[in-house]
Amino acid sequence: MNKETISDNQGIALIVLYLVSSSSIYATGLDAKQDIWIATILAILIGFITVFIYIRLHYCFPDNDLFDIIEICFGKVIGKVLIFLFIYYTFVNSFDLLRGFCNLIFTISLSNTPFILVVIVTSLICIYVVLKGIIVLSSWANFFFPLIVGLIAVITVLSTPNMDLDNLLPVLSDGFTPVFKGIYVLISYPLGQLILFPMVFPKFENKESPLIIYSIGFFIAGALIFLINVTNILVIGVVGAKSAYYATYSSVLRLTVPILRSFQIIPPAIFVLAYFIKISVYWIATCNGICKLLDFNNYKYVVVIVAFLVSILAYTSYYSILDYVEWEDAVWTHFSMPFQIILPFLIWIVAEIKYKRTK
User: Fold this and answer.
1) Residue 55, domain member (yes or no)
2) What CATH number corresponds to the domain at position 75?
3) Which pLDDT tens digit goes with each residue over 90-129?
4) Closest Cα partner for 10 from 162, 139, 192?
5) Which string of b and e fits 329-354 if b means at least 16 CB within 10 Å?
6) Structurally, how many domains does the chain consist of?
7) Does 351 reside within a domain?
8) Of 333, 224, 215, 307, which Cα lies nearest the Cα of 270?
């Protein structure tokens, strides 16, 4: 497969919009309650460990994606098994993300439209984006990056009159246990999902690019997630955030000045723009993994097949939005940890050993 080169600005924009996408609507880490600001800061600091791992992998094996590195480090047999496991992870999350996106569209604006039609139209658009490739996707992200970041800042400023600092008090009233739970959830979703980028970033402009892209992109994304989480708690409180499917959207609905209520469309717009990036990145990673597993030359051969399976499962796997949310809360955090933390750490250790032996 021809390896495309991604620029530093494109990589940073792609990481930021990818990580912030669903967080611009959902409130994550609410297990920490009013101490979510503490949990978010600590989760970001811990998340930089994975940032370091991915930077090292790219440094040790330049111009290779994660699937290539796995085969280099573990050989064909064990490597294929690990690749299959990562494909399973990306595939499950692909239809999970598609369902979450369609739930939002259906709930907020297209409730009279057949849900299957929402899924089909969304999938067709995603197919088009994925077939265009990671460079076109990253260019698209780079174009919308200042707009989306600016809109998040505007929403925060406009929400200031509705903020109540008492919603952040008392600090650590229940000790550190809720904070640890919040950290666990935040690392699982969305910070740990950075694992997708070693799967889709095969080549950079220079050797320092991975350090620049991952560190700056993760820092900006973390800062925005912190801003969104704290704003939600300040505006609608812990109880309000937990009871709302889309906490940020609920926060914007609190804008009391009539002319400002028109801004209630902005969070879904942010979600739509950024969430297409997230879904597309997962689809590209899934197709790229299948390509490496079956020794194909181009992942685009399997895009339509993967899209067909993802669309069917997105439509049939959940009975309702409540069923979807319950699965996310009860299963996702535990399901994702081996793929986002444990396996990357294992791969990094073996990669470092392999790298030192070849020096």
Assistant:
1) yes
2) 1.10.4160.10
3) 999 999 999 998 998 888 778 889 999 999 999 999 999 9
4) 139
5) eeebbebbeebbbebbeebbebbeee
6) 1
7) no
8) 224
Give tens-digit pLDDT for 114-173: 999 999 999 999 999 999 999 999 999 999 999 889 888 888 888 898 999 999 999 999
Cα–Cα distance, 138 to 140 (Å, whole number): 5
In a domain, 266, yes or no: yes
Is the bond preceding 344 in cis, omega lying within 30 degrees of 0? no
The number of C-alpha atoms within 13 Å of 292 and in the hemisphere containing its C-beta is: 28
**Is the residue at 43 inside a domain?**
yes
- Tell me which residue range forms the domain holding 91: 5-345
Tell me, rounded to whole angstroms, the distance of Cα 208 from its chain centroid: 24
